[in-house]
Amino acid sequence: MKQMGDYEILSHVAMPECSIRIIGMKEAEQVALHYHENSTQIYTVLEQEVEARVGDRTMRLRPYETVRIEKGVPHAVRAIDGPALVLSLSIPPLERDDQHPAE
After folding, report:
1. Which of 32, 37, 72, 94 could form a disulfide with 5 if both were Cys (CB 3.0 to 4.6 A apart)?
2. How far apart are CA 10 and CA 84, in angstroms?
3. 63-66 own/partner pairs: CB under 8 Å, 24+ apart
């Protein structure tokens, strides 16, 4: 799976109905702007705060806050004010060839 940005996948589990990843980012690291043709994603912040860009909207998310990203919508997330952990849920499971740069 092509990595989009500067981050680390700490955990990845694929099941028939979804895939779950825990993404670790140091301060100012990011998941670069990209989209998925086949998967809807849900990001939930586990630690620290992040700035999430979803389509034309930019928001600051604190721990336990969640954002849903529909198929085809460009999105990015970056750590602010220190390292961050984000849970990424993909429905259906994210496939290796379904990460597309948006810029």
Report:
1. 32
2. 12
3. 66/42
As a whole number of angstroms, the distance between CA 69 and CA 22 comes to: 16
Q: What is the CA radius of gyration of the chain?
A: 12
| Neighbouring C-beta atoms of residue 84, cutoff 10 Å | 26
For residue 48, give the nearest of 38, 34, 59, 60 by alpha carbon: 60
Which tokens sit at 103?
Answer: 């810029």
Dist. CA 87–CA 102, nearest whole Å: 21
Q: What is the mean pLDDT of the chain?
A: 94
**CA dist., res. 94 & res. 28, Å (int):** 25
Q: Tell me: the pLDDT tens digits for 16-50?
A: 999 999 999 998 899 999 999 999 999 999 999 99
